[in-house]
């Protein structure tokens, strides 16, 4: 069921989620808001894709989840990074950096 | 780790579906609440915040469905859902389900049965260790293209001594013989084999040891079965003595039950490695060899070619154009059965094709009924694949049910097949349903499903919602394309059936020819006794002849016996000889084409007993003794072949059977077909038993009876054993022997005919289905026609005419196909030309009749359409 991360958007979504959760355990909406805020609104996250991605990442063993009470005194599912998740994030970051710098070089060369 | 999580999460998800759904719902709800809360924090009212959240993120339900459908377990669930749906559909249409499954069961069953035989006989490796490297050696003549399965002793010995490609070469020969034990005799297959025989087959005895070369003509191995039947068990057989021909043999070892080579051998007598026969023109041996590991048959053949050339140089006359050939044992064993089995397999394939077409047709009819439903589903947004899936699953389900029923059918059919198979079908004992066969079935079922469902599924995918909802065939507006497709399928079915029926007709005609053929002798009310008396020397032989004479007299005195005689070389019998002969006073002889004939050694009275007419001259008599001048009787074709218009009586003839004395021809008798009714009557040279005692101890006693022949068995056995208790006996009748000689032809004819019958049944179903459907479709039209005054006869005629038209197209196509294919069966026909008008017209009329019959019921139904009811039924 693993889907290859060739799709840039999806690959990015996974990485963004892992990065966001690496700071502290968070629930779905928290992740969406954080991504939106930090990207200054460049990335809008669709809840359907986000929650599906969370399931996928959990099944891949990169996230674990627990139900906690929120400050709004409602039960929410909080996701946190596992050890393999951390490794995965590091890998994806390195990969992204490699690609980004390659693309930047290409664009500069062209210009 | 992640695979494990996939698995456990998926399983947990599908086990606790409700809990998981609630969890997903909670999470999604919480998300939307938080989103709304965020909007509220920016100053919107509760109501506005909710709307803003929904505008931003879409509907709660859509998100929930999207999240919920994640995971492999959901795809599995969807599959099972579709499967349940397909199952329910089948239950709702039992007529369709049963017809389709039965059709496939017949088609698949026939294929499994034939495949089981093909697999066991042709494909499965022989049950010997490293069987692939066991080969047989043949002799081939490059000048006339003839190949013999035998080799001469010296050629075989030269190969063994010089060819490096073989790890072991063994010469053997043998046949049906009497084996004397201490107090009784047994009639069985005895093989003389040298010490290399066991090396070629990598044999290990289950008891005792193998013999070695120094024990030639003194030791023997026996089969486990032989040991059990005659000594109780394998251990008890060791050290026992048995007599074969003139030798006393000690049993040194017992070979395992599964070892059956040459077929049905029970005793393997030790023969010397150095062959007794020193002639390079006497093909007295068969040879088997084991290839050295790593040596290919091609390499071995190349080496054999070299040696053959050397031998040709060394022996220019005896070995002229002679090439020794290597052939894999499996090919040598099963080569003869191959064409028959492949023919059957092709036929079974044709049946399956017809069955597929039928099921396709049935499904198509159903899918046309479902057009509305499919159109609605498509209008509601189902994808092509979603529409096709239930159709394909339905096909799969039907063919798996059919396949299962087919296996049951086949396991019964295989038993019938084996029982019916000709006695010389190699490896018949090994035939059974195994894993390969079941795998083949599964593959076949799935393939069938895909083939049968492909067309209906594609059509389902193509349904245009708007178009389908507008049109409605039951209103008399049928789409032309759909009709012609279905008719095309029926025509294809009839074509295939016609080919089958023609094939069956040809083989049945062959069979009828064989049965009605005169053999040249009497076959009814003939008891045949295979008798083998021990004889070790000339005096033994002469005594045996006298004993047999006594036996014939005693047997003739039994009530119910009309005539008795003895013969070596009985037609269709197991003993016999043939070879070249010379004449004095006959036609001039071409030295390159010496005349040959079957040799028979007969007692006096043989011709009378067998009902063979003595055309001229006299039978052998009591005055023809070992001491008197040698005499012979010849058959008409021999007289024609070597004497032409010259009167053969009183002329001289000589052959190399056992003596080179010239014999005087004293009589001419009618020709007989020697081996089977399929053979032309050939030349035979008869010699009296009294003058050829070495060939007089192994013979068939024939008794012409006026009661049921086998009723005399016990009396005859007693009479014979009274004279000599050491004669090994076996009883049969001429009718049975005749039957066995036609077993292959009968096997083919019966099988192909039953296949043709199944094909006919399926074609009938096909025509019936099409007609019934088209009548149901046209009910409205027929109603109007009848309301306007059409006569019932005209309606019936129009339906039947449609069926006849389809049948005629099918027959014409089938005729063309048959013309192309019958060449393949030419070699299996006797007295029938491939374009046999009887078979062709028979097949054509049978199919036309079937088509008309199966169209009649729907046609009759059409004439009973009530115009008022149809017009009102909207």
Give an overview in words.
The complex is a heterodimer of chains A (111) and B (874). Chain A is α+β, with helices and mostly antiparallel strands and 111 residues long. Chain A has one domain: Arc Repressor Mutant, subunit A, CATH 1.10.10. Helix content of chain A is 61%, strand content 14%. Chain A is built from four helices and three strands; from the N terminus they run H-E-H-H-E-E-H. Chain A has helices spanning 8-23, 28-38, 47-59, 83-110, and strands spanning 26-27, 63-69, 75-81. In chain A, helix 1 packs across helix 4. Chain A is globular, with a radius of gyration of 15 Å. The termini of chain A are far apart. Chain B has 28 helices and 22 strands. The longest helix of chain B is centred in the middle third of the chain and has 37 residues, at 384-420. In chain B, 54% of the residues lie in helices and 16% in strands. In chain B, helix 18 packs across helix 27. Chain B starts with a helix and ends with a helix. Chain B is an alpha+beta fold and 874 residues long. A six-stranded mixed β-barrel of chain B has the order 3-4-9-6-8-7. The chains are: A alpha+beta (111), B alpha+beta (874). The interface between A and B is medium-sized, with 27 and 28 residues.
How far apart are the termini of chain A?
Answer: 41 Å
Q: Total number of helical segments of chain B? A: 28
DSSP strand content of chain B? 15-25%
Largest sheet of chain B: 6 strands, mixed, barrel
Shape of chain A: globular
Strand content of chain A: 5-15%
Cα gyration radius of chain A (Å): 15 Å
């Amino acid at each position: 069921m693993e889907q290859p991360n060739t799709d840039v958007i999806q690959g990015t979504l996974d990485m963004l989620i892992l990065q966001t959760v690496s700071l502290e355990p968070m629930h779905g909406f928290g992740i969406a808001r954080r991504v939106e805020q930090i990207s200054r609104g460049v990335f809008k996250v669709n809840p359907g894709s986000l929650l599906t991605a969370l399931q996928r990442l959990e099944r891949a063993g990169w996230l674990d989840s627990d139900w906690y009470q929120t400050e709004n005194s409602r039960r929410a599912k909080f996701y946190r990074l596992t050890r393999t998740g951390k490794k995965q994030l590091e890998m994806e970051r390195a990969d992204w950096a490699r690609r980004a710098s390659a693309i930047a070089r290409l664009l500069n060369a062209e210009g | 780790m992640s695979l494990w999580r996939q698995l456990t999460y998926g399983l947990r998800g599908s086990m606790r579906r409700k809990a998981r759904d609630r969890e997903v719902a909670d999470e999604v709800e919480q998300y939307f609440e938080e989103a709304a809360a965020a909007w509220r924090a920016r100053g919107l009212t509760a109501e506005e915040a909710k709307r803003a959240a929904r505008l931003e993120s879409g509907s709660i339900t859509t998100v929930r469905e999207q999240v919920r459908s994640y995971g492999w377990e959901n795809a599995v669930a969807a599959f099972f859902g579709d499967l349940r749906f397909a199952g329910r559909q089948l239950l709702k249409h039992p007529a369709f389900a049963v017809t389709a499954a039965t059709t496939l069961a017949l088609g698949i069953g026939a294929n499994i049965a034939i495949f089981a035989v093909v697999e066991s006989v042709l494909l499965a490796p022989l049950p010997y260790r490293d069987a692939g490297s066991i080969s047989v050696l043949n002799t081939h003549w490059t000048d006339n293209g003839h190949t013999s399965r035998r080799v001469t002793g010296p050629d075989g010995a030269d190969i063994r001594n010089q060819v490096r490609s073989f790890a072991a070469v063994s010469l053997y020969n043998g046949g049906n013989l009497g084996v004397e034990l201490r107090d009784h005799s047994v009639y069985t297959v005895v093989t003389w084999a040298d010490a290399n025989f066991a090396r070629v087959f990598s044999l290990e005895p289950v008891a005792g040891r193998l013999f070695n070369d120094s024990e030639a003509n003194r030791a023997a191995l026996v089969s486990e079965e032989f040991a059990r039947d005659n000594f109780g068990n394998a251990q008890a057989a060791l050290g026992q003595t048995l007599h074969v021909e003139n030798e006393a043999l000690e049993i040194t070892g017992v070979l395992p039950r599964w070892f059956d080579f040459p077929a049905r051998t029970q005793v393997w007598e030790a023969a010397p490695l150095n062959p007794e026969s020193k002639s390079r023109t006497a093909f007295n041996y068969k040879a088997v060899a084991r290839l050295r590991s790593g040596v290919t048959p091609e390499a071995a053949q190349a080496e054999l070619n070299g040696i053959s050339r050397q031998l040709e140089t060394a022996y220019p006359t005896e070995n002229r154009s002679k090439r020794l050939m290597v052939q894999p044992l499996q090919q040598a064993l099963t080569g003869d059965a191959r064409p028959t089995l492949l023919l059957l397999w092709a036929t079974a394939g044709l049946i399956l094709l017809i069955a597929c077409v039928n099921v396709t047709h049935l499904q198509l009819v159903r899918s046309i009924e479902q057009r509305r439903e499919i159109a609605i589903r498509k209008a509601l947004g189902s994808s092509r694949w979603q529409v096709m899936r239930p159709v394909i699953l339905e096909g799969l389900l039907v063919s798996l049910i059919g396949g299962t029923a087919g296996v049951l059918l086949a396991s019964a059919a295989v038993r019938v097949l084996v029982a019916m198979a000709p006695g010389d079908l190699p490896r018949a004992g090994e035939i059974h349903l195994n894993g390969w066969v079941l795998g083949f079935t599964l593959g076949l079922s799935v393939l069938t499903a895909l083939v049968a469902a492909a067309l209906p599924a594609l059509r389902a995918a193509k349904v245009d919602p708007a178009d389908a909802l507008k049109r409605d065939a039951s209103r008399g507006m049928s789409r032309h394309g759909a009709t012609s497709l279905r008719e095309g399928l029926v025509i294809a079915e009839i074509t295939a059936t016609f080919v089958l029926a023609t094939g069956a007709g040809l083989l049945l005609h062959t069979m009828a020819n064989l049965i009605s053929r005169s053999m040249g002798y009497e076959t009814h009310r003939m008891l045949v006794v295979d008798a083998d008396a021990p004889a070790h020397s000339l005096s033994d032989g002469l005594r045996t002849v006298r004993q047999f004479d006594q036996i014939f007299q005693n047997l003739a005195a039994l009530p119910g016996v009309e005539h008795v005689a003895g013969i070596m070389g009985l037609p269709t019998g197991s003993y016999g000889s043939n070879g070249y002969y010379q004449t004095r006073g006959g036609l001039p002889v071409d030295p390159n084409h010496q005349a040959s004939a079957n040799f028979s050694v007969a007692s006096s009275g043989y011709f009378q007993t067998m009902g063979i007419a003595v055309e001229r001259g006299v039978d052998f008599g009591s005055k023809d003794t070992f001491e008197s001048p040698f005499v012979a009787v010849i058959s008409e074709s021999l007289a024609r072949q070597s004497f032409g218009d010259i009167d053969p009586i009183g002329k001289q003839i000589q052959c190399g059977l056992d003596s080179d004395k010239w014999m005087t021809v004293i009589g001419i008798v009618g020709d007989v077909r020697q081996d089977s009714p399929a053979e032309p009557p050939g030349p035979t040279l008869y010699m009296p038993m009294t003058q050829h005692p070495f060939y007089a101890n192994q013979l068939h006693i024939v008794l012409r009876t006026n009661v049921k022949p086998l009723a005399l068995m016990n009396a005859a056995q007693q009479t014979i054993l009274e004279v000599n208790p050491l004669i090994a006996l076996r009883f049969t009748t001429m009718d049975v022997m005749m039957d066995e000689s036609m077993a292959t032809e009968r096997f083919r004819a019966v099988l192909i005919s039953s296949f043709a019958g199944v094909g006919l049944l399926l074609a009938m179903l096909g025509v019936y289905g099409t007609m019934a459907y088209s009548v149901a479709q046209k009910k409205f039209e027929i109603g109007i026609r009848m309301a306007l005054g059409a006569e019932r006869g005209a309606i019936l005629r129009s339906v039947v005419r449609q069926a006849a038209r389809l049948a005629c197209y099918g027959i014409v196509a089938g005729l063309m196909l048959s013309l192309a294919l019958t060449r393949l069966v030419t070699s299996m026909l006797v007295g029938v030309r491939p374009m046999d008008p009887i078979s062709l017209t028979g097949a054509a009329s049978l199919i036309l009749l079937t088509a008309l019959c199966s169209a009649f019921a729907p046609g009759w139904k059409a004439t009973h359409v009530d115009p008022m009811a149809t017009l009102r039924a909207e």
